[in-house]
Amino acid sequence: MNEFEEFLVKKAATIQLKEPRKQKGEVAWESPSNIAIVKYWGKYPSQIPANASFSITLSKALTRTRISYEYRENAGGPSLDFEFKGQQQSGFSERIENFLKSIEVFIPWIGSLDLSIRSENTFPHSSGIASSASAMSALSIGLCEIEEQLFGKTEGDDFLRKASFMSRLGSGSAARSLYGKMAVWGITASCEGSSDEYAIPVEEIHPDFERMKDSILIIESGKKQVSSSLGHDLMRSNPYAKLRFEAAELNMQKMCSVIREGNVGEFIDIMENEALSLHAMMMTSMPGFLLLKPNTLEALGRIRNFRNTTGKAIGFTLDAGANVHVIYPENQAAAIRDFIETELKELCENEHIIHDEMGNGPCRVEKV
User: Fold this and answer.
1) 61 and 192, same structural domain?
2) Which of 61, 116, 130, 216 has the smallest number of CB atoms closer than 10 Å to its CB?
3) What does the pLDDT look like over 34-79, one tens digit per residue?
């Protein structure tokens, strides 16, 4: 048990001795998804990453979650009523129940709550945007606010760090969504204060990286052919895993310098290398998965050709699927958006593109 985990357990023991300040209430938060630039692929038990990762926090791709609660002493719960976009979702409700059990040691009061959770996304499912990252981070930060409403603030507490810690237990990438602009999750020699237990914000960002744009090409919608959990598990037997983890750490060290210094060209080189390395790991696992589609490869070729012929700072990254995240700076957005509309849109399913940009992290909301 590390230092922060010990702090949370001790805090939980202290809270168990307190009486709640209120019996019922409501909180509402919206939290964004994020796109990893340096990928983590492979993990250990308790959602510990095999390598550190670096991400851009999005702005428009959000989950909005309202949690109503009622405190009942020794309820033997929690009881849960969950709806997504106004409908019961048994699969995700079960995932939330398992998540609440996993964090009960850190928030033991959760067993005394009747919870009603209403959630919705601002983006379509299966769009290449990590919905688990936005959903679990919105839920976790809401639970942290409920704790403050019930028992007040604790000396030495770190609201966002605890929310990031708990988010990680629900979805590893969700740990990064608690911070605006850019975040690091996982221990790396390149970033002081980095941790496997929670993410931290990137403090030094060169002006050239402010308000980066992310246009997501929907090459193929629908459920992913391979779940992220299975992909992470397959890294345990992948013969290239050790080399991949070492390469990721080198890229992390380069990336932290690049972001401070404003080297956009090297940023693109690292980002694209990471994206292709991720898919190389999927292809070389056993069984192997080929998730890139013909239009994915065509889009990557057109992006690189446009960059080479115009000198524009445009690059791509990929998650575990066929869809393409086109990343570019705000000061070149007009020309690059024109290229996306004229050259890349035709490669997308139903010409579907989602335009997003770097955002500022979670915030409270009045309505869901």
Assistant:
1) yes
2) 116
3) 999 999 999 999 999 999 999 999 999 999 999 999 998 776 778 9
